[in-house]
Structures are given as structure tokens and as C-alpha cells.
Design brief:
Shape of chain B: flat
Largest sheet of chain B: none
Distance between the termini of chain A: 58 Å
Low-confidence stretches of chain A: 1-33
Mean pLDDT of chain A: 82
Low-confidence stretches of chain B: 295-300
Helix content of chain A: over 70%
Radius of gyration of chain A: 28 Å
Strand content of chain A: under 5%
Helix content of chain B: over 70%
Shape of chain A: flat
Oligomer: heterodimer
Number of helices of chain B: 14
Distance between the termini of chain B: 32 Å
Radius of gyration of chain B: 25 Å
Mean pLDDT of chain B: 89
Number of helices of chain A: 14
Largest sheet of chain A: none
Structural class of chain A: mainly alpha
Chain lengths: 317, 300
């Protein structure tokens, strides 16, 4: 048996799948296989190595600006302008991260962003889920007309609505408060309603009917049966919405002027405008990095749900 | 018989009432924050409203003014020009998705890395790219310096400010379209490729005649949503080129609307432009719904 292997192995090398690239084949090692298996596997492996290489170069390009931000945030004010550039700061100026808290209203920015994002997504998710339940599982006159009406709202871009919305909130004295950012959101999110309604289609009607016969109210059914059933879809949509509100910039810049009420995104934009004149780039980059951090953490923790949800909502359009 | 009918209709009525209460909140929100502002926008677009004194009806003045307004036309052109990034981004992300569709280690890691810019806040991203595009000390020009190229002062130069914004937009959006392509690729049945390979189709032919048609719905979805998103580009313009760029070269429609409305208090004129923008988005969305009806979207 071993003799056979000895014979087949030598001529195998030149018939490798991609000529002129022997480098990739070295790692196939001494393990012996039949000719077909081996060349196919080597081809696959070589392809994988090349692909990994290309993807790695791309990954470096994707990461570089973020890494550059972090690196700059740890430099001295002059270290930023050094040539050739230092990727690893010398010395590390961790004080930049201490300075940002007194250099601008960063803390109140985080606080305001949290207030807006939490109240909008928590209350808004509840109202959206309730509406999705009604649209998917309950009888109601004009149900589809109402649903289509809501969906049609998605076609209208925010810039078209922002001037009248601003006037409305200005007339009731809500400008320069967080209310114009919170109140429209707590009425629900049409994309979330749409998504949860689709998801509920896969939940059998019979569980709702059975609960009705047992005498449960619709609110009880919603809370004890529907909410647990839609939890994964709700969680994914919740995270996406939270990140969208957290990252929002256009609505806050319209409504908020005084530093104390501004959200984090506005605070760092002002940091940028203010400290660029003083060429204090480490400070700007430290603040920007702090602004990126919460969402990065949320993303890394909930990566799977987010990616699945995007892939699902995107292809279902 | 008749008693069961009335009992059932009473039950139905209760169900109807409960359902109406459940959907009332989003419906009221829609009326207050979408429908009413929309009608108001359309009305204001026919007036000389400045946001303070009472609006005076002006007929189509704002609309005719728009097409003689050099800055409006420029910002419209800039907005359309910056959409060059869409096909470029789609081609790169399809290539990336094909690469990641292989059975190999590290794809989860790559997915995360390419997706990071998507979830990052656009404000922070605009700030860090503004720094990256800095003419003297920016990351981009230092990279070009390694190749012996003397890079321009990207954001201050009329020739490079739009390409700079396009580069950034492609970088930010790649991960999203890549992910959707990857999802589409994974749903392509393997036997199609096997059958094609048996018939002697080359890799290019398989790509051309199987992969491209199979991912067409995603391509279409991405083109439409990117055009809608691109037509509303604002944050990066406002942060990176606060004055609309050198010689107004980077001002977008939304940026111009925002400036006219909240800086110059020409609310009527800004409303007219916002209505035009709304119509544009509506037409694009409508086309998507019509064309996509067959294979994707359905109510019930």
C-alpha cells in the first residue's frame, strides 16, 4: 500500500492547480492523499490564502482611519505634525482623555444622547410592537388602508418635513429642549412595525384565538404571548434603532443651540470646529473616539443579531 | 342561530376597538409629524414665508426662482455627482462578498471589520476623515507620499473636494452592501454552479450568467436605497466643509435647504426646494415598489 503512495506523489507537484505559485503548496505537508483529492484541496487552500491576503489588505484600509484616530488621540499637540508620521505615539498622552471632559460639555452630551435614545427606543418599541400585533393578528376595519398609509410615510424624506416640524415645535416653545427629538419617536417606528408584522406572520393565529377563548384580554395576550414570540426580532430592531438615534445629527442641529442641551454628536462637531483653529487635533480625535465607542461596544456585543437583521430586512426590502 | 351571530359580532366589535387603540398611536404620530408637516411644506412652498411674519401667497414664484438660482442648480449637480460612489461601492462590495462566501477561516472577523464604518456615527466619521484629508498631515497624503505622490489639499481644492467625499462615502457604505450581497450569495443554490461546471462553463461565465442574475434583486434594492440616501447627504458636508466647500463645490441640496431655512430664514423658498426633493425621492421609491413587486415586496 505504501509503495503506491510513493509512486503517485512525485508527479503530483507539477500538476498543481495554479502554475507558477508554488508558495501556497508548501503547507500541504507530508500527509498523503490520492491525486484528485490533493490537487483539489491544494487549489482551495491556495485560493483561500490569496483571498485572505486580499481581504486583509482591504481590512487594513477599513480600519486605518479608525486606528489613526485612536493613535492621534494619544499624541502631543506637536506630535501630530511629526514627519514621518508615528503610528505608535511617543510619548502616550493619556491626559488627552482626561482633558476632553473639561474642554467641552462631553458628559452632558452623552447624558442627553442617552436620554433621547433610551426614551425613544424603549417607548417607541412598545408602541410599535403593539401596532404590529394589531396589524398582524387582529381584525379591524380599514386595516390594510391604515397600514399602507403608514408605509407611504416612509417615502417622505425628513428634510421635506423638517421646516414645518421645526415651526410646530417652535410655536409650543420646545426648541432647545430634547422634546422635539423624543416626542416624534415615541409614537413608533414604521420600519419596525413593518418588520415585526412580517415576523408575526410566522406565529400561528391559533395561540391568540386559544387565549381569547380562555378569556385573556388583548393586552394580556400581547404581553404574555406576543412579546416573548417576537423577542429576537424586537431586539435586533431595537439595537438598530438605538444606533440610528444615537448617531443622528440633522434633527439635533436644527433644534439644539445651547451647549447644555446638545447631544453627543453635536458636542463633538463643535469640538471639531472649535479646536481645529487651535490645531488641537489630539483633543478632537479623543472626543471623536469617545463618541464612536458606545456604538462599537453595542455592535461587538450584539453582532450576530445586527448582521442577521440587516441581511433579513435588506433582502426583504 | 341569531344569538351566536350577534355574540360573534359583539366579539368582533371588541376586537376592532382594541386593534384601533393599538394602532392609534403610530397613526396619530403619522398625522402629526408626517402628513400635517407635508401639507404645510407644500403650502409654504407657494409663499414668501420667513418663519416669523405671516406667509403671503406668491404662487409659483419659488419654483421659478429655483431654476434660475445658480446655487440651487449647483447643489443639485453636486448631489448627483457625488452618487458616482454608488456603482463603485457596489462593484467593490460584490467582489468582497464573493471573497467572503468561500468556506474559510476568518470570515466572521472580516465581516466585523468591514462593517465597523457602517455603524460608526457619521459625525465622528466626518471628523476623522476631515483630518485624514488634511493637506499636510493627513493620513491619505501620507499614504500617497509613500508612493511618491504629492497629494492635494483635498477639501480646499475645487477639483478634489467631491472625490474626497465620494471616497469617504464608499468606505462608510461598503460593509452594508457587502453584507446584503453575502446573504444573497448564500441563498444561490449550489446545483446551478455544479450544472454549469458540468456543461463546461468557465468561472467568468458562471459569474456572468448565474451570480449576477441571482443577486439582481439586492443590486436593485441597494441602487434605489443608495440614491435615496445620497439625495439627502448632509452631515459630512456640514462638518467637513461648513461653508459648502470651495466655491460651493460640495454643497448638497439638503445642505442648501438647511442653510436657506435656518440661516437666511427663507422658509418659503426652502420649503419649495424640500418639496422638489420629496418628489424626487417619491418617484424613486415608487419605481422601486413597482419594479420590485414581482419578486420581493408584498402586503399579505
Amino acid at each position: 500500500m505504501s509503495a503506491q503512495n510513493v509512486i503517485t506523489t512525485p508527479p503530483l507537484e507539477p500538476t498543481g492547480p495554479i502554475p507558477g505559485s508554488a508558495g501556497g503548496q508548501d503547507k500541504s505537508g507530508p500527509r498523503r492523499r490520492t491525486q484528485g483529492q490533493r490537487s483539489a484541496k491544494d487549489g482551495l487552500r491556495l485560493g483561500n490564502i490569496l483571498t485572505t491576503l486580499v481581504l486583509s489588505v482591504g481590512a487594513i484600509i477599513m480600519i486605518a482611519p479608525l486606528a489613526w484616530t485612536f493613535s492621534t488621540s494619544l499624541k502631543t499637540k506637536d506630535g501630530v505634525f511629526e514627519l514621518p508620521p508615528q503610528w505608535i505615539p511617543d510619548p502616550f498622552v493619556w491626559e488627552n482623555y482626561a482633558r476632553i471632559w473639561t474642554a467641552g460639555p462631553l458628559l452632558s452630551g452623552i447624558q442627553n444622547s442617552l436620554i433621547v435614545a433610551c426614551s425613544v427606543t424603549i417607548v417607541g418599541s412598545l408602541t410599535s410592537a403593539l401596532a404590529a400585533f394589531a396589524f398582524a393578528k387582529m381584525r379591524m376595519p380599514f386595516k390594510n388602508v391604515l397600514f399602507l398609509g403608514l408605509l407611504s410615510g416612509l417615502m417622505i424624506p425628513f428634510p421635506t418635513l423638517m421646516i414645518p416640524q421645526f415651526t410646530i415645535f417652535a410655536s409650543i416653545g420646545w426648541v432647545d429642549t430634547l422634546l422635539p427629538l423624543i416626542v416624534p419617536g415615541v409614537f413608533g417606528n414604521i420600519i419596525m412595525i413593518f418588520f415585526l408584522r412580517q415576523f408575526l406572520n410566522s406565529v400561528p393565529d391559533s395561540i391568540v384565538e386559544a387565549a381569547r377563548i380562555d378569556g385573556a384580554s388583548y393586552l394580556q395576550i400581547f404581553w404574555t404571548l406576543i412579546m416573548p414570540a417576537i423577542r429576537p426580532a424586537l431586539a435586533a430592531q431595537f439595537i438598530l434603532w438605538f444606533m440610528a438615534v444615537w448617531n443622528d445629527y440633522l434633527a439635533p442641529i436644527i433644534y439644539l443651540n445651547s451647549p447644555g442641551t446638545q447631544t453627543l454628536q453635536l458636542v463633538i462637531a463643535n469640538f471639531n470646529a472649535q479646536y481645529a483653529i487651535q490645531t488641537d487635533y489630539p483633543l478632537i480625535m479623543a472626543a471623536s473616539f469617545i463618541a464612536l465607542l458606545p456604538v462599537l461596544i453595542v455592535f461587538i456585543v450584539f453582532q450576530r443579531q445586527i448582521i442577521e437583521s440587516i441581511a433579513l430586512s435588506g433582502s426583504k426590502g | 342561530m341569531s344569538t351566536t351571530v350577534t355574540r360573534r359580532s359583539r366579539l368582533h366589535r371588541k376586537e376592532h376597538q382594541a386593534a384601533l387603540v393599538f394602532v392609534a398611536i403610530p397613526v396619530i404620530g403619522f398625522l402629526l409629524f408626517t402628513l400635517f408637516p407635508l401639507l404645510f411644506s407644500v403650502y409654504a412652498s407657494f409663499t414668501n414665508w420667513n418663519g416669523i411674519s405671516a406667509p403671503v401667497f406668491k404662487g409659483l414664484d419659488n419654483y421659478t426662482k429655483m431654476f434660475g438660482d445658480r446655487y440651487f442648480l449647483k447643489s443639485l449637480w453636486n448631489t448627483i455627482y457625488m452618487m458616482i460612489g454608488i456603482p463603485v461601492g457596489l462593484a467593490i462590495s460584490l467582489a468582497l462578498a464573493l471573497a467572503m462566501n468561500r468556506k474559510m477561516r476568518g470570515t466572521t472577523f472580516f465581516r466585523t471589520v468591514y462593517y465597523l464604518p457602517v455603524i460608526s456615527s457619521i459625525a465622528a466619521v466626518a471628523i476623522l476623515w476631515q483630518w485624514a484629508f488634511n493637506g499636510d498631515f493627513g493620513l491619505i497624503n501620507q499614504g500617497l507620499g509613500l508612493l511618491g505622490i504629492d497629494g492635494p489639499n483635498w477639501l480646499q481644492d475645487t477639483a478634489t473636494v467631491k472625490p474626497a467625499l465620494i471616497i469617504m462615502a464608499v468606505w462608510k457604505g461598503l460593509g452594508y452592501s457587502m453584507l446584503l450581497y453575502l446573504a444573497a450569495l448564500q441563498s444561490v443554490p449550489r446545483y446551478l454552479y455544479e450544472a454549469a461546471a458540468l456543461d463546461g462553463a468557465t468561472a467568468w461565465q458562471q459569474f456572468r450568467h448565474i451570480t449576477i442574475p441571482m443577486v439582481r434583486p439586492v443590486t436593485f434594492f441597494l441602487i434605489v436605497t443608495s440614491i435615496i440616501g445620497g439625495s439627502q447627504i448632509f452631515v459630512e458636508i456640514n462638518i467637513m466643509t461648513p461653508t459648502g466647500g470651495p466655491e460651493f463645490e460640495s454643497a448638497s441640496i439638503v445642505w442648501y435647504i438647511w442653510q436657506k431655512a435656518f440661516d437666511n430664514l427663507q422658509m418659503g423658498y426652502a420649503s419649495a426646494m424640500s418639496v422638489v426633493l420629496g418628489l424626487l425621492v417619491f418617484v424613486i421609491t415608487f419605481i422601486q415598489f413597482r419594479l420590485n413587486r414581482r419578486n420581493q415586496f408584498s402586503i399579505d
